Amino acid sequence: MAPSRNGMILNPHFHKDWQKRVRTWFNQPARKIRRRKARQAKARLIAPRPVAGPLRPQVRCPTIRYHTKVRAGRGFTLEELKAAGIHKKTARTIGISVDSRRRNRSTESLQANVQRLKEYRSKLILFPRKASAPKKGDSTEEELKMATQLSGPVMPIKTVHKKEKARVISEDEKNFKAFASLRMARANARLFGIRAKRAKEAAEQDVEKKK
Asked: What is the C-alpha to C-alpha distance for residues 75 and 54, in angstroms, rounded to an integer?
């Protein structure tokens, strides 16, 4: 078939021995079984601790594009642990992840994570190191009998969507000019320094005139 119009000149390479270069994936089902067995072995090894690992904090994604989404973070800040009354060294031993680099930029995030830590602490079943000599803070024998290994993530983060009720649009909202308001705000921000300088100069001139 002849090429049509001003397209790319066809240059097929069908004389190469391409069958030798085909990449196969015949070990996929066996790898799947191997991964599953490895997960089960790990779960048995760390039992009765949760399979998914330590508790993670609730954080917001960076940048304007994604900051409306809430996800699990790396670890709790030292400020959050202090507010919850948990020592940073103790936290790692009881299944709480710690991130010494993250900072709390808002009170809301701090309070949300402190509440998350307190809720986790109230639900936590802490096994004594020595069954014969339990220490203060360790769980009772009845609680230890109730303990089961958690398979999913520890306290999964749920996104709650708040729906606004339908209402009548007010007159102020109808008369509001969004584009003009934005332009005005941008102009005020741009001219703030010049206006302040002019006002200062005018005030100095008035003082000199009065003299």
From this structure: 9
